[in-house]
Amino acid sequence: MMKKLYLIFGTYLISAVSSLAMAEEATTAVATSDNVKVFAALAAGFGIAIAAAFGALGQGKATAAALDGIARNPNAAPKMFTPMIIGLALIETLVIYTLVIAFMLIGKI
């Protein structure tokens, strides 16, 4: 069932993209430049949204796992705290990198 669903979705996606590729070309350079600006703004917005969503999910899972370990063994709390904070900082760094890239894309507009 899932393979059939993937096949149907893939066929639809390919036909949608190919129809856009076969569309009429822009008549002026301004229209093409405007399209690039629109897609750069969309890429920045979607990039931030996706990075923030999955970064938050990753941080939630990491925190839940650390707190679960601390709840099972309270004596290990000091040993778990520092690696957890470092892991959370590394997860957040990826979101910050996406923010920097989004600012760079917006700067191109």
Structural notes for this entry:
The structure is a single chain. The protein is an all-alpha fold. It has one domain: Up-down Bundle (F1FO ATP Synthase), CATH 1.20.20.10. It contains 3 helices and no strands. The chain has helices at residues 2-21, 29-72, 77-108. Helix 2 (29-72) runs antiparallel to helix 3. The longest helix is centred in the middle third of the chain and has 44 residues, at 29-72.
Which terms would index this structure?
F1FO ATP Synthase, 109 residues, 88% helix, 0% strand, mainly alpha
Total number of beta strands: 0
Q: Beta fraction of the residues?
A: under 5%
Q: Major sheet, described briefly? A: none
Helix and strand pattern? HHH
Q: What is the H level of CATH, i.e. the homologous superfamily?
A: F1F0 ATP synthase subunit C
CATH architecture: Up-down Bundle
Count of helical regions: 3
Morphology: flat
Q: Secondary-structure map with pairings?
A:
Layout: H1 2-21, H2 29-72, H3 77-108
Helix pairs in contact: 2-3
In short:
This protein has three helices and no strands. It is mainly α. The protein has a single domain, classed as F1F0 ATP synthase subunit C (F1FO ATP Synthase, Up-down Bundle).
